[in-house]
Amino acid sequence: EIVKFVQANSVTSGILPLLARFNRLSLLALMLYILRDAADRDRLGGTTFIQMNYLCALAMGVNYFHHSAGLATPVGALSAAFALFFSFNGITSYMKKQNA
């Protein structure tokens, strides 16, 4: 969609929400890449990575309510599953850190 706006030389106010969504998606993708790298190096127990898991869970929870409005939809179910996954990862890492 962004390419269509640029090709048509019609940079209007309609592109701003699109760029905001792209910005949020880019930030979430970067956080997921960092978490994957931390998991590969077995470093998810660090405070920063625990907090990033909670932020990803929050972002997915907000995405769930935004896209599905609480109704059962495939996109909503996937977002809710990811939110639970990141929450569980954060809690597990926090508990391991407390017991160590």
Concise account of the structure shown:
Helices cover 80% and strands 0% of the residues.
Explained architecture:
The chain has 100 residues and is mainly alpha-helical. The protein has four helices and no strands.
Secondary structure layout:
Layout (H helix, E strand, L loop, with lengths): L1 H6 L7 H26 L6 H22 L5 H26 L1
Helix pairs in contact: 2-3, 3-4
Mean pLDDT: 81
Helix content: over 70%
Helical segment tally?
4
Structural class: mainly alpha
**Quaternary:** single chain
The outline comes out as flat
SSE run: HHHH
List keywords for this structure.
4 helices, 80% helix, single chain, 100 residues, flat, mainly alpha
